[in-house]
Queue: 2 jobs
Job 1
Amino acid sequence: MTHISTAPTPPASAAVSDGDLRMTLAAELADARRRTLWLVEPLSDEDLHRQHDPLMSPVLWDLGHIAAFEDLWLTRNLTGHVEFSEMPGLYNPFEHPRRVRGTLALPRLAEARETMDEIRARALARLDTADFRDGPRLLLAGYVYRMVLQHEYQHGETILQTLQLKRGDPYAPPQRRVLPSPAASYRPGEMVFFPGGPVELGTDDRSAAYDNERPRHRVDLAPFWIDVTPVTNGQFLEFVEAGGYRRRELWTEEGWRWLTEAGVSAPKHWAKRLGVWTTRTMDLIRPLEPLRPVCHVCYHEAQAYSTFAEKRLPTEAEWEAAASWDPAIGAKWMYPWGDEPWTPELANLDQTAFDTAPIGAYPRNVSPIGCYGMIGDVWEWTASDFCGYPGFEAFPYSEYSEAFFGPEYKVLRGGSWATRPGAVRSTFRNWDYPIRRQIFSGFRCARDA
Ligand SMILES: [Fe+2]
């Protein structure tokens, strides 16, 4: 069994020399690759090539795509400008929608790994001469390397979504990190007050943040209430048992249309066996635990629950303010707990637990206003459509986020247990269709003051 690392990403600082930054980036690239390969280690070649679900790529496609993306950005684009559309056809996500990727002529694992190694060697050779101060804009502060790192981290989470949907025998993780027991107790449904007023959202960081997180800007928020904890399994069970999935009045028109077509009556991966509700995460099936965050719900389910609870979903501005803004001193933090980089004691991130944690297991994962668990465990649906902030500028390619701006996508915040720490912060924005529930998604509610 290979070693699993939980090294956090140190923040880039102007005081770091180019040589030190090169070493850090090379170590992070190696760590990202170790993790990717560790996740897929238990899979047979057949499992790697199989399309386990129409929503997900064969895992082998993700591996090839990770390498092709690295080749595009860390070698080809650093010697002369290349458009994203010039990514090799087989691994170009826009040329082949996920549902058909199982029909592509994908290589065997050994061959894919050779390609990954060969591209990595060229990327590292180029890194040796990278000029992070006066080089092209892509290289300033090491940005393009962090972009490629985050891309690999994000595909790791995508692979975990696929593995949760695996056909045949369920995926057996190579090892599971033991989660801490709750050290603080919370009453699910309890709310905390945010006084409103001017807050700062987004960031001007150019070393790691994506274009859609920029620029940092000020908004005036009305006062609101927000749940102290994510909605739990226990709370969601009340909704299920009160006939929430049959009560038309709780759903929007679009939500009801989805529900009628999907014909579901509980979150994905919930099942009722002999009168007992169970949940499944990978190969672990157990009775529903009321004090873990509900996971695998779509936006419409989150919205219907919020109406049932006589609440609503927070906007993403409210979410970010509740997660990172200290209204007492007018300061913003990178994480709910401050600016200190993630460590395993701070929040349930980094994949290796393969599970959500009971509420209260991370007593330091509390924001300035007192919201628990805004980073880690489950992504949280917000009420907001995905769009650019005022003054948004696509960089370095519009296919990362700008191509998705619009009302079809809802924003999710905060990362899940399956998110690597280098791929989440209080300004990080994720987005997906409001009908998606194969993702590790939950939510918390808000209410007008
Ligand atoms: Fe990608």
Job 2
Amino acid sequence: MAGALRTEAVVLRSMRYGEADRILHLYTPHRGRVGAIAKGVRRARSRFGGRLEPFFRLHIELHEGRGELLTVTGAQTIDAYGRLREDARGLDAASRACDAVGRLFETSEPHPPVFHLLCHQLSLLDCAGGGAVAALVWPGALSFRLKLLLAAGLAPQLGACANCGSQEHLVGFSGAAGGVVCSACEAGSFPLGEEAHSFMTDALGRALAEAPEATPSALRQVERAISATLEHHAHVRLAPATAA
Ligand SMILES: [Zn+2]
């Protein structure tokens, strides 16, 4: 495996290491999540400048040796998403998006659509900028998570009861059953109203930029359904989708 690897990547996390180094979690289209070390990057005259900060989309060159971490040998910026960095809510939303990807797709298994979904979400947050972000954050973050579930093969069943197949009286959601459940099968489920149900169906069917709107109480149910699915089927527990 030793050798050079050139790839696009998004910096999911960047941690100080030693006197001048950084350890990076990168998400790549064809190598999934990659751990890398950038040596000397915190020195004033580092050739990497500030490019190895969280959320940067890069062309990156890595050297792959025997160790677990690859070594960064070069990096060019594709997009710094500068506007989302000017707003604390934009930064927070970007950080939650990167955290969700890093936890749900933590192996080297390639998922190119996840890479593109993440870049798209970062662009949307960047375009929204400033105050507009607040209105977008929660529905957008939940749409993003639903699309991650789909990419992970964990999309909840929404068209019929996940237990008995009935298409009527769908009143609850069960993480264990893997979707909506009817009134006869609701034991062990929690209530999922019509608005939350439509939000999930619409969000999965639409582009990320067209996240549906919903009331906070419906969004809370959607978030709970996503969490229950992840906990049951991926044993992953994510931070809340927004700070709000
Ligand atoms: Zn049923």
